[in-house]
Amino acid sequence: MSDPIDSNVPTAQPGDLKTPVGGEAAAMASNSLTKERNASLWADAWRQLRRNPVFIIAGIYVALVTSMALFPTLWTSQDPRACNVENFRQSPSAEHIFGTNTQGCDYFSHAVYGARPSLLIALLSTVAIIVLGGLLGLLAGFYGGAVDGIISRVMDVFFSLPFLLGAIVFLTLIKKQNVLTLSLVLVVLGWTTIARIIRGSVISAKSLDYVQAARALGATNSRLMFRHILPNATAPMMVYATIMFGGFVSAEATLTYLGVGLQAPAQSWGIMISSNEQYFLLHPYLLAFPCALLVGTVLSFILMGDALRDALDPKLR
C-alpha cells in the first residue's frame, strides 16, 4: 500500500514555472553560446599572454611610459621650461640625468613631459579609427550589395593616398598643428585597414550557423551585427589597433621632424629629435635619449600586438 501524499508539501501549479520554449529557448541558447565562445577565447589568450615574457616586458615598458604621460611629477620635479642658459648642453650627470639642452633646460623633464602629446595623439587616432573603420567595415560586410560597393570604393580612394605624403599635404593646408589636427589627419589616412579587416571578418561570420539561427528567430539587423557578429571580429581588430598605436607614435614624431607636426613650445619626442639633430656629433645624448624612448615605445606596442595575435589565433598556438 503506497504512502499517502503529504498535504503540507506544496505542489507545482500551472504557470508557477515559466520554461522558455521554441524560439525563446533557441535565442537564449544562441546568446549563451556566443558569450561562452568569446569568454573562452579571451580567457585562453590571457593565460597564454601571462606566460609570454616578451609580452610582459613590453607591457611593463608601455606602463612606465604611460605613467610618464599621466603623472609626470612622479618622475621629475623639474619644470621643463625652467631653463638656465649658463647650463646649456651639459652632459648627463647626477643633477641632470639626461643632461641639458641648448637652452639649459633639464632634458629628462623634457623627455617625461614629451610622452603625453605623443601618446595622446596615438590614443585619439587609434580610438577614432576603431570607431570609424569598424562601423564602416561592419556595414559593408553585413549588408553587401550597393552598400558594400560604395564603402569599398571610398576605402580604395583613401587607401590609394600615400600616408606620409598625404599627411604632409593635409597639415600644410590646415596650417594649424596641434594634437587634434594631427589626430584628425592620421584618422583620415589610417581608417581603411581597420575597415577592411572588419569587413572580411563580418563576411565570414554572418554565414555561421548561430547567426543564421538568430536571424530565423527574428533578430533585428542591429542585434545581429552588434550582439552576434561584431564580438567575433574584435580579435583581429584589437591586434591591428595595438600595432597601429605604436605606428601613430612614430607618425607623430616623423611629421614633427619634417616640420608639419607639433611646434615649440610644445614638448614631444619628435620636437626633441628635430631640434637637436644638428648637435648629434658633439652631444649625441640630445638625440639618443628621445630616440631610445620613441623606438622602445613603438617596438613595445608592435611586440604586444604580435603576442596578442599569436594568443588569439588557435592555429598559431
Automatic annotation (TrEMBL):
<dbReference type="InterPro" id="IPR035906">
    <property type="entry name" value="MetI-like_sf"/>
</dbReference>
<feature type="domain" description="ABC transmembrane type-1">
    <location>
        <begin position="115"/>
        <end position="304"/>
    </location>
</feature>
<feature type="transmembrane region" description="Helical">
    <location>
        <begin position="154"/>
        <end position="174"/>
    </location>
</feature>
<feature type="transmembrane region" description="Helical">
    <location>
        <begin position="119"/>
        <end position="142"/>
    </location>
</feature>
<protein>
    <submittedName>
        <fullName>ABC transporter permease</fullName>
    </submittedName>
</protein>
<comment type="similarity">
    <text>Belongs to the binding-protein-dependent transport system permease family.</text>
</comment>
<keyword id="KW-0812">Transmembrane</keyword>
<feature type="transmembrane region" description="Helical">
    <location>
        <begin position="54"/>
        <end position="75"/>
    </location>
</feature>
<dbReference type="InterPro" id="IPR000515">
    <property type="entry name" value="MetI-like"/>
</dbReference>
<dbReference type="Pfam" id="PF12911">
    <property type="entry name" value="OppC_N"/>
</dbReference>
<feature type="transmembrane region" description="Helical">
    <location>
        <begin position="237"/>
        <end position="260"/>
    </location>
</feature>
<keyword id="KW-0472">Membrane</keyword>
<feature type="transmembrane region" description="Helical">
    <location>
        <begin position="180"/>
        <end position="198"/>
    </location>
</feature>
<dbReference type="InterPro" id="IPR050366">
    <property type="entry name" value="BP-dependent_transpt_permease"/>
</dbReference>
<feature type="region of interest" description="Disordered">
    <location>
        <begin position="1"/>
        <end position="21"/>
    </location>
</feature>
<keyword id="KW-0813">Transport</keyword>
<feature type="transmembrane region" description="Helical">
    <location>
        <begin position="280"/>
        <end position="308"/>
    </location>
</feature>
<dbReference type="Pfam" id="PF00528">
    <property type="entry name" value="BPD_transp_1"/>
</dbReference>
<keyword id="KW-1003">Cell membrane</keyword>
<dbReference type="InterPro" id="IPR025966">
    <property type="entry name" value="OppC_N"/>
</dbReference>
<keyword id="KW-1133">Transmembrane helix</keyword>
